[in-house]
Amino acid sequence: AQKITQTQPGMFVQEKEAVTLDCTYDTSDQSYGLFWYKQPSSGEMIFLIYQGSYDEQNATEGRYSLNFQKARKSANLVISASQLGDSAMYFCAMREMDSSYKLIFGSGTRLLVRP
Amino acid sequence: GAGVSQTPSNKVTEKGKYVELRCDPISGHTALYWYRQSLGQGPEFLIYFQGTGAADDSGLPNDRFFAVRPEGSVSTLKIQRTERGDSAVYLCASSEHGDSPLHFGNGTRLTVT
Fold first, then answer.
1. Is A51 within 8 Å of A59 (Cβ atoms)?
2. Is the CB of A43 less than 8 angstroms away from the CB of B42?
3. What is the CA radius of gyration of chain A?
4. pLDDT tens digits, residue range A46-86?
5. Residue B8 preceded by cis peptide, ω within 30
6. Mind listing the pLDDT tens digit for each residue in B79-103?
7. How far is the C-alpha of A51 from the C-alpha of A58, rounded, in Å?
8. I need a labelling partner for B50 at 20 to 30 A (CA). Which of A37, A87, A99, A104 fits?
9. CB contact, 8 Å: A104 with chain B?
């Protein structure tokens, strides 16, 4: 079974608009962490935001926020005020901390910001 | 400070040859990870080190793949008898602790001809 599911292979958003990238996960661990990474065409993996399973508040980092719905096992990334430089692949990832600290990635969503 | 360094950035080898890929993590980071990324896909976990020991090697696809981290810093991923299907970008990442975010290197693009 897929641990991390990103159902949107590609998304478009108009510059300055907000966009939500979907991520659902599957785990039986009580303690886990959820991460989002950005990968521009240059190939580097850039850490954006982290949400712990016990965090009661949704994580925010600048224009990025994570909409964490534990009961639904979803961890959607919201990017506000999109910029052209936000065009990239976005990967959701999970670390199950009851078992191993390895990070498991989803298949990614390609975001294209239109001017 | 310096980030995660991977060498070489590109490697072309013939089918059946042996290759070594090197990763120099961020100084002081105790955890080190290897991933493989094929075009258009997410990174696929290979192995994770905590210090010198492999804490989880469940992602290594077969016994042609092996990784070491003898002094708890630099790591080498070794691939024997390379196959065309091994062609991918091999990413290394390190983190300060087991539960900290991963910081990635720029990867080694391996092409097996």
1. yes
2. no
3. 14
4. 999 999 999 989 999 999 999 999 999 999 999 999 999 99
5. yes
6. 999 999 999 999 999 999 877 899 9
7. 7
8. A37
9. yes
